[in-house]
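step 4 of 6: structure.
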Amino acid sequence: MKILVVLRMIPDSAGELELTSDGRGIDREWLDFQLNDFDDHALEEAILLKEAVGATVVAVAIGEGSNRVLQMAVARGADEAVALEAEGDGIIESRAIASSIVALARSKAADLVLCGVQSTEDLFGQLVPYAGTLLGWPHVSGSSRLGIEGSALRVTQERGGGIAATYEIALPAVIGVQTASKAPRYVSGSKLREASKTAIGKAPSEPAGFERSAEIVALRLPGQRGTGENLGDNPENVAERLASILAAKGFAGV
Amino acid sequence: MRIVACTEGSFGKLEPFSLEMIAAARGAGVAGDEVVAFFAGQELEPAIANLGAADRLVAASAGNAELIAAESYARLLRDTVAAEEPDLVLVPYSANGLDVAGDLAARTGWPLVSYVNEIRRDGDRLTVVAQVYGGKILAECSVPLPAILMVNPGAFAEAERRSVDPSKLQHSDATAVVAEGKVRLVGVDVPSYDSVDLTTAERIVCVGRGIGDEASIDIARGLADILGAEIAGSRPVVDSGWLPKVRQVGKSGQKVKPKLYLALGVSGAPEHLEGMSKSDLIIAVNTDPKAPIFNVAHFGATCDLFDLVANLSERLQAASGR
Ligand SMILES: Cc1cc2nc3c(=O)[nH]c(=O)nc-3n(C[C@H](O)[C@H](O)[C@H](O)COP(=O)(O)OP(=O)(O)OC[C@H]3O[C@@H](n4cnc5c(N)ncnc54)[C@H](O)[C@@H]3O)c2cc1C
Ligand SMILES: Nc1ncnc2c1ncn2[C@@H]1O[C@H](COP(=O)(O)O)[C@@H](O)[C@H]1O
């Protein structure tokens, strides 16, 4: 089995996000880029499958800092690393990169494409259904467990309310991983150093298969929606206020 | 304009966001527009009993699908879209919707915008507001029609629940479509609420990734005990195995509405807010003043959660020991 796993580098949204002067993008100059969380789980699930049933894992990364993440992927067990050239340095649009992923899946003869279920940049739709539909392969988003049963893939998908559905799918398929079956592993420094010698392949970006979905008129920071009161940042003052708020509302002293 | 509003339900219940899709469709259009509700699932009764606010209901029943796979749902929706030729299709941002919206967009080539909170008609286009970067940025987009929008649950009020007039129902049997699918349902897991049912809890202390590690959960648990609250977690906390799945709040966890919700180190991603934003009293502690949790909090503090919990626990304990 050949697994292609897609690793997207996205701005760290826990950090400060500032808008560009035209208001249509975020200022990327000082941004920290990190691996999309869900893609990290996709990588882990790929390695777990490899360990369970044997597979070749090809990691493809897109965006700033790709090489570093590809080395990490190899240190964790990926067999091959490919950096996909992205157009420009703006949002990684799933709708636009889907055709590149599809071309790679074909040229690498992949049986299974794993991506994170979404990225925080998937404004114009998710990579999984685009890639799956373009390939003509079944696709399932939001997996929390993957396994191989005979020649078929077993996918557990999370629904609301903690309900989980398990589906069986004949390969090839595209899966959007939400959570790997086990938490992503750590890699030792020595493995990382060893992996830093790995040759990283390059793949050109293919023309997007679709028209651009929409025009971003403006980005803005959400205004404070509620009438919430800011209690400040001094823990003693905050604790004092909260203690009296909780008491007044009948929550303290039970 | 004709708008197809996608709805969902299973185990005899309609997902409440189905009614929000009808309301969103009504709000997106103008008087005289037609709103067609689309439903696919095992039992039609919940759809028929509740979706009367739409002008019509197109429903496909699949007796062989306890939880219809998105693949089958998407194929049935495609047939409906081909027949109805709508100008706009609204898909809920759900596990199913994630696959369905993109599938339809890829096959039609129509534009798709995800995580939509607001929809306005602007001549022959739509202006929509969508959330990106975990809710930290709002993107205002201009979208040509026909278009597909994936709409956030909770962004629109529910349309009125009333039953569908039999003359407004178009029903088909989807058993064959499901049977032909490449994605076959082999099992459904329903969580056991023997240990705890957060949906009925009156007080919840929820920890997010800001708690840092498993051992620190005990610190929050201590405060929860003092408050007589249940402990809960955001998705990363549960994914890390620090709390059991039944204690996850949010989109793929429990939807809660306690009298008190204390969020510690939770950023407030849309998927988390979906599960708790209707709580009576929300108190949030997060060092990042821009964290979206503060958009729904009644009281917010930007101090370190560990300092706060230590301080507050001490005070509450002293007060109760009086
Ligand atoms: C289909 C779907 C369903 C989902 N369902 C749910 C759900 O049911 N419930 C839910 O909660 N979420 C859900 N999510 C996930 C959601 O999008 C968010 O990822 C999640 O809510 C974030 O949790 P958090 O606030 O605890 O962590 P966040 O704060 O959002 O993220 C972690 C950040 O913490 C920072 N950090 C780490 N250590 C420290 C430290 N010591 N001090 C300061 N900062 C630090 C890191 O830089 C990192 O960026 C779902 C997502 C999808 C796609
Ligand atoms: N010790 C802390 N006290 C209060 N808030 C925190 C603390 N650590 C992290 N946070 C916030 O909690 C959210 C999730 O935590 P983290 O992902 O670990 O940063 C983020 O928005 C942080 O800003």
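step 5 of 6: annotate
 - Chain A touches chain B through 92 residues (CB under 8 Å).
 - The mean pLDDT of chain A is 92.
step 6 of 6: archive
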